[in-house]
């Protein structure tokens, strides 16, 4: 039986919010000076949303097409900035990935824009740990659809999704996979779910979940 682990990114593998905020604020101040400043807290509050939802949340003062266009330009700069500067990895992340990758194939599914996962993998040279990934920016599809897509594309018979916010849990349930809450991340889960307080706890929790 083929079993796999699928990861969310923000609040699960890393916290890129400070550098994302810097890159977005640079674009907004250059193109729309005086519109608003983009802070780390702003970015943390929208982590996990699709890019369309983020545009509506951060730029409600703009017509929706203009807000989406600005968000797209911010995302281009964000990808370039993260490729150069990275983000903040959660403690013991690579050591734990090494352990997990020996036992299970690893994947990423995120609501991010196209190029964001690639920036993460390129900066840290983590491509060797992950067999596949999918994101909203590639197909404009919701996270549940992309979790299921990765499961089907890689012929997984059982899978667990590791994420930090309620939307991650909801998507995993809709996709029919198990869920582990990264409780150190950005969000809480309303239901009583399996959880880890540090990333290094994951191998044991996955073993309990998938066997």
Structure description:
49% of the residues lie in helices and 16% in strands. It contains 10 helices and 8 strands. The protein has a 6-stranded parallel β-sheet with strand order 5-4-1-6-7-8, with helices on both faces. β6, α9 and β7 form a beta-alpha-beta unit.
Note the overall shape.
Answer: globular
The SSE order reads EEHHHHEHEHEHHEHEEH
Spatial separation of the terminal alpha carbons: 11 Å
Number of helices: 10
Report the helical percentage.
Answer: 40-55%
Low-confidence stretches: none
Largest sheet: 6 strands, parallel
Structural class: alpha/beta
**Which band does the percent of strand residues land in?**
15-25%
Characteristic key phrases:
about 210 residues, two-stranded antiparallel ribbon
Give a short synopsis of this structure.
This protein has 211 residues and is of the alpha/beta class. It has ten helices and eight strands.
Architecture blueprint of SSEs:
Elements lengths: L2 E5 L6 E2 L1 H15 L8 H7 L4 H8 L5 H22 L2 E2 L3 H9 L4 E5 L5 H9 L5 E6 H4 L3 H11 L4 E6 L2 H10 L2 E5 L12 E2 L5 H9 L1
């Amino acid at each position: 039986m083929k079993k796999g682990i699928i990861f969310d990114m923000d609040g699960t593998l890393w916290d890129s919010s400070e550098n994302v905020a810097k890159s977005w604020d640079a674009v907004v101040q250059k193109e729309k000076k005086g519109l608003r400043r983009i802070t780390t807290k702003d970015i943390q509050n929208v982590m996990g949303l699709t890019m369309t939802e983020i545009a509506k949340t951060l730029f409600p003062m703009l017509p929706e097409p203009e807000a989406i266009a600005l968000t797209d330009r911010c995302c281009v700069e964000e990808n370039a900035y993260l490729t150069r500067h990275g983000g903040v990895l959660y403690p013991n992340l690579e050591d734990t990935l090494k352990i997990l990758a020996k036992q299970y194939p690893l994947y990423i599914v995120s609501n991010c824009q196209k190029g964001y996962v690639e920036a993460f993998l390129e900066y840290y040279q983590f491509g060797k740990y992950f067999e596949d990934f999918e994101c909203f920016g590639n197909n404009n599809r919701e996270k549940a659809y992309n979790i299921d897509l990765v499961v089907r594309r890689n012929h997984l018979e059982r899978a667990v999704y590791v994420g930090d916010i309620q939307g991650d849990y909801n998507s995993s349930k809709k996709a029919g996979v198990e869920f582990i809450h990264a409780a150190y991340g950005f969000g809480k889960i309303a239901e009583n779910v399996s959880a880890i307080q540090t990333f290094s706890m994951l191998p044991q929790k996955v073993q309990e979940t998938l066997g």
